[in-house]
Amino acid sequence: MTIVEKIAEAVIEGLLKEYDFKTTHKDLQITLTKPEFEGDYTLVLFSLVKKVNTTPELLANTLGEYLIKNYKELFQDFNVIKGFLNLGISNKLLITFAADNYNNFSFGTKAATGKTVMVEYASPNTNKPLHLGHLRNIFIGWSIAEILKANGHEVIKTCIVNDRGIHICKSMLAWQRYANGDTPKNTHTKGDHFVGDYYVKFNDIYKEEISLLVSKGIPNETAKKEAPIMKATQDMLLAWENNDPKVKDLWQTMNGWVYEGFAETYKRIGADFDKTYYESDTYLLGKDFVYEGLEEGKLFTKEDGSIWIDLTAEGLEEKLLLRSDGTSVYMTSDIGLANVKYNEYHPQKSIYVIGDEQNYHMKVLQQVCKKLGMPYADDIFHLSYGMVELTTGKMKSREGTVVDADDIIDEVISTAKHHTEELGKTKDFTENQLMALYETIGLGAMKFYLLRVDPKKRMIFNPEESIDFHGFTGPFIQYTFARIQSVFRKINTDEKISFEIDASSFQELTPLEKELLILLEQYPTIITQAADELNPSVIALYAFQIAQKFNTFYNSHAIASADTMEQKKLRFELSSITANVIKSSMQLLGISVPQKM
RNA sequence: GGUCCGGUAGCUCAGUUGGAUAGAGCAUCAGCCUUCUAAGCUGAGGGUCAUUGGUUCGAAUCCAAUCCGGAUCACCA
Fold first, then answer.
1. Residue nearest B13 (alpha carbon to C1')
2. Which residue is nearest to nucleotide B37 (CA to C1')?
């Protein structure tokens, strides 16, 4: 049981005994005491005053007296300011906590729940390389999956690859016309970038053709449709859908190049998937459900034969599910995919990590599934994250302001190299160790930067300033870990001692030791909270607070050369739990920690 | 226009089931390395919590209106 739970239990009993008033944990406000007041945890009593018909001060004092008298193991003192009851947690309890957990590396992880959760993330198109927005998506998705695992859930990480459609044909056509048989290999280009360049090429030609037509007096809208290269692309899509072997062959080849490029990036950033779906395999599957829904009268047709769903009663609009020519739209293939996922894994919850620009689409998808009577409809959850924007506005490929994933990763790793060299602490590293260290620090900075912000909110990235390595950053936390390892190396060579403390004979804590222990004790609660909110930034913020508190402690307390053996043991335990919590929480963010830096 | 999201320090962000003097990092300024890693620590300055009104013992947090920004409302994906 956590300290807060223990406090709640004691308070509930106190209220019952002293006031004959029944309450529950969630009706109690228990928070960390603000630094300017005495105490560790604070119970806010204003809301209870009316219910037990007394004054705030009286209630707080009565409860305080009760708690200190009946829960000596838990509390050592209290004070009252108005309706705030500030409680001092007993040193003995905290020292026992330290002794019990300093060697416990699963501290924080929960027992298995038997619940299966699917997390879909990344979901790239195969016509261009990944960019900064994808990185945010990938880091969030991956981290959420790990956080859910830590909470005892079975997690299936999935990825849907949007590998077909008109946009894919664009790069194919441009390659066919302008590449002269070039490949990623003979041009020494990463496959996804290679293909992406032809997508850009397509758009350049397309634009030229449009302006040519417009200059001949053709209206813009018509020009967009009539541009020869666009016509050719549509023909290609048609050929693709009719399984034209040449087109399919080209498609296979070019997508293959892209996959090789993606795989390289995924490997580098540690993204992995248990199951990858391809839109080309699933895009037709939704059709049957649409026809079925139509037969059951849940859908309707318009005069031209197109099939629609009426969601006006749900506060949404009418939505097209099948075109008049019988071909499927985005929504249709999403219905199909949802079914495939469900049939394959039967998850209790299916999380889609998708940008907030698709809020409406996902709302509609869920309602459509509901109307069609899908058993999993209510278990679909759109984890909607905000776009990454630049200080100058949105990233636009047209204006060349897209921050490429591979570029930014290279950049942050080279910055890590630069900083490390400048500090000159790595003289005993081999070349390989150095390369690994730069990756660890660079990627740590990158991932932490993108995960420390609430996923729901859009965030702003300033490409002029490189990602920071000081303060509320990954490297700061990594550094704290490395620092602790350094202390351990010192202690281990010193002498062999047992680090168990007898909490019945030693009960001294400095204020900072106490604050640190109280923070560390909250780790399991934080993991639960992060899972409940599906929010990795909760972990990031917590890891930072731990590192910050430890550094303050470190600065004013000798560890290896503490005054007494008991103090030395306690501080070792404290450092050990801190290191463990840092390592474990950073792991949940996909960030590794170095032994030295 | 409808719907949804947002506006907190110069910048990037915490804080919203209503609670104590609104926090952190960066940036700026002033200190701290003969002691376990200075990617660190200590301190200072910096706020009309978009605006106005309301609800009450108490509002950044709840309600209403207004202003500003964004997303979305395709036989695109």
1. A453
2. A483
